[in-house]
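Q: I have two molecules that I believe assemble together. Could you output structure tokens for the complex as a whole instead of separate predictions?
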Amino acid sequence: MAARAPVIPFRPRPTKKKLVSDAVLGMILFVFVEIMLFAGFISAFVIIKARAVGSVWPPPNQPRLPFAETAVNTTALIASGIVLLIAHRMFLKGRGLGGGPAELGAGQAGSRGGRMPPHGSSGGVLAGFGGLLSRPVGRLLVAATLLGGMFVGLQGVEWLALIREGLTITSSTYGALFYTIIGAHAAHAVAAILALAWAAVRLRRGTLTRDALSAVAIFWYFVVLVWPFLYFVVYL
Amino acid sequence: MVEPAVDLAHGHAHDDHADHGPQGWLKYLWSTDHKVIAMQYMFTGMFMALVGGFMAYVFRMQLAFPGIDVPGFGAVSPGEYNALVTNHGTIMIFWVAMPVLLAAFGNYLIPLMVGADDMVFPKINRLSFQVFFVSTIVILASLFVEGGGFAGAWTAYPPLSAVAEYNLTRLGSTLWVIGVGLEFVAFLLGGINFITTLMNSRAPGMRAFDVPLVVWMIVVASILFMLSVGPLLAGAIMLIFDQTIGTGFFNPAAGGDPILWQHLFWFFGHPEVYVVLLPAMGVVIEIIATFSRKKVFGYRIVIFTVVATGVLSFFVWAHHQFIAGIDPRMANIFTITTLLISVPIAELCFVYIATLYGGSIRLTTPMLWALAFVAEFLIGGVTGIFLGAAGADIYFHDTYFVLAHFHYTFFPIAIIGTFAAFTYWFPKMFGKMMDERLGKWHFWLTIIPFNVIFIPLFVLGMGGQHRRIYNYNLHEDLNSEMFQDMRILATGALLVMLAAQFIFFYNCWKSGRSGPKAPKNPWKANTLEWTTESPPPHGNWHPLRMPVVYRGPYEYSVPDREDDYWPQNEPDGGPLKVIDGDS
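A: Yes, here they are, computed for all two components at once.
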């Protein structure tokens, strides 16, 4: 019997390569779960709306949702997402970390692993909240956080007005769906704002990594991007 | 085999790392080691299996001998009966099948089989178990609150589950929903870890098609779970609001829709079947390949089949609702998808048989369990055809036929699959060999009674016996002597099966104490977990000797080789002698 050829050709030892970093991949997976959560809520809304008595929706004795006023909230939220996007991109490229136009951080930030160097010698001057605002990335991050906070605050004001007008969680399935879905979104927004504030603190301390900011940013993009769907499905 | 020439003087550097954390038993409570977390899941799951088994014993006694003082429980009231069947189902699926098969073996096997030192997010992994533990306490506590445990069936259909005046368990039902919700959060955190670890932490050289099938299947199961659980969590939030603050999501009088819950529940519930099935099928194929000393038939086909099953499993859910008043045209569509999904699963069974064909089969205890899985699951699958066809289901719906079919799928998954995995990896997990003689006694005394329990239930179901009825003797058409004999036969077989489990626990205890010490690779298998110590140290391998992968996991009986196995980490030119310079 003739000698057989080797069954498997020799494979040289390949190097390890990650397509997406651990933190970003984990957050993306989590966001998929969240998308499905809101898909569940939206489908519940659509089904209950379709089965409304006499196809009258919203129910006749219930107040209408302030579609026009909420446009302001929507704008604030989307603006916050865009501001964060700019800050995120800047940070990934290692720009916007210096105190002025000289862009001191640019050269150092290129190292793999992504941990940004602390601001070092100028620490005394830059310490505290001011240190955050003296850098473009810091300013943008704070702006995104404040715009997000503005969204949640305006939503709260709107809720108070609606409760005064008689739309409560038990007044009808309309109210129940509104407060459950929009409330779930608000809870996500609060969690994401806390995460953004945490990222800002880490940035000030110089311990913010690219992965950490990317993970937080992805979660915030999710909160921002799911809102238009809720806005048009629930409010309209 | 010549060990790689590395400096072993610092061999304990990584182990010492474990001692920086808390000491003593706290070390086990706060450990982030994936193996410790796997054991925590496993033992919690086994404890809950005893709880669920005890419940089955109590209500089967009531059915066989209505009104009897059940030893160890007392007389069963109708309310208690409802709570028992509800929580038996809930616990066996969510607190036994999922934690043991998915969480415990997923945690234990994924890092070891892909050659990683731990999960990617060890702290999230620990958090996952802690949330799960809290959920366990919540579900156990719900059994002892005023009114007793939730009594609205494990599917929790509203309005029965939403209105306390109907289910009579105001506190129990809310705790039940909270417990189940927390449990989902725990597995969600675990699932993120599983997928990320497989994608990012594979050993150098391990390509997508070098990953063992069990890892593939556990990860596909995690993806299914994570994509399907969101809508159910949304439904659970709405159900809690209905129960506690009086919204009317599922209440038709308030403008809600009770069928909505059924859709949300089964949109999760049917992928859930595959979430627990796939890990069991993965375990079984590993064992079959090892003990028939043959390459898995159609490795890539299996992976594509599993992915196809996963996709299809999202489009079959309404076959649970054929008589819930859904549109008959929709029922037609779901009949077709349901019959379609039996194709990939049947294909997997054929793959297993083809793998066995012509192999040098060794009938060890794990192999017996694996073969029993294929045989018994086949019965479950074939009886599912009757239920998947909308026309036949109108008659069979909610009878004991459904119940027996369901147990013919879930018992192989949750019990047979688990025992297969446990006996196969026991040497790795505990460093001792299990007693084969006791293992085989346990096997036969579990498998035979299992069939004796559920075959009569098929017959009862075809005779029109509906589920969830407290005392069949109160129903004239179900109160025949033949029927009652079958109920008694099933209960008697259950008692034998439950008693046989003590053989298993005795075997674990005895083998763990005084069994022969397990070598690194007792079954002469190829996958990476067998290349480390039994049990593996913290960090799984010596940090300087992390495995490198050169081939797929099933190179058994390769021609022209002295050994009939070829470990994944062994280079083609024989055992490794020099270490590459590039690391």
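A: One point stands out. Chain B touches chain A through 52 residues (CB under 8 Å).
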